[in-house]
Amino acid sequence: MPNYRRAYVEISNICNLQCHFCPEVERQKQVMTAEQFATLAPQIAPLVDEVCLHLMGEPLNHPELASIIDICTRARLPINLTTNGVLLTGSRKDLLLSPILRQVNISVHSFEANFPTREVDPYLERILSFADEAEKVRPDLYINLRLWDLKVGDEPAPSNQRIRAILEDRYKVDLSPAAINIKRRKQARLRGRLSAHFDSRFVWPSPALPKRSEQGFCHGLSSHFGIHANGTVVPCCLDKEAVINLGNSFTQPLNDILGSDRAERIRSGFQLGVLREELCQKCPFIARFDKKAKKLHAAAPV
After folding, report:
1. What are phi and psi of 213, to 5 degrees?
2. How many domains in the chain?
3. Residue 254: inside a domain, yes or no?
4. Phi, psi at 214, each rounded to 5°
5. The dihedral of CA 96, 62, 202, 80: what is its sign?
6. Domain residues for 121?
7. 21-65 pLDDT, tens per residue?
8. pTM of whole model > 0.85?
9. Quick one: which of 27, 158, 240, 259 is 20 to 30 A from 220 by CA?
10. What backbone torsions phi and psi does residue 82 show, to the nearest 5 degrees?
């Protein structure tokens, strides 16, 4: 079984926003308790470099976030946290400056998707003030401002253009679409460990989509795995409805689940450029790895 780069642990599947590019969760709304998380942290820590407190949902909305961060501190489990930034105020801001936090990703493109008629300046200023404070007290903390709104031939949304303009003026950088080539480099450093991170939007995998191919590659179960709020383990961070249910980490040892026959079959398939699960065969995101998949498939023994 490999050592993983990260585990995506969904401490809540409830979000305070509903972005049009992020599909609504169809599962029962659920919050993983700090007590439940405490049973997982010691199992996860030896397997991964870091834990991402997100799969779906908004982690800053969790009522026991302070306890979860404390559990990670005791388990020596570095945190990579993704938030939309709307709740980045008061004590929550202080929590994200905890030493166990390794990286904070703020999806600033979510603002336009939910508040198209509101001024983005106050929202962004609150986030940049947090970044300024982090630079003073946690200069080792990576902060990524996500602008995942690029699409070939399309200009960014007006609000996101305003975000770019503010960042360009404040940090004296060029963030125009012409200056960003996500095929070569997705990040633009703003200052210290604060960066703007660019990517294109994508379609989430779904059983309702047409079959794309039986050939393909995914980093699932080699670089990462996911755990839903109800304990269900999935091979990939994009399996938002737990279609590929490998087992429940609240009732089974995590090592047993990740080493199960089904998990091994999925993992070995990816290494051969073969997609052995229906959801994977219908996943549009996997197209990003088509070149690698073709090489793996061509090199696979007959």
Report:
1. -170, 155
2. 1
3. no
4. -95, -5
5. positive
6. 4-200
7. 677 788 899 999 999 999 999 999 999 999 999 999 999 999 999
8. yes
9. 27
10. -115, 130
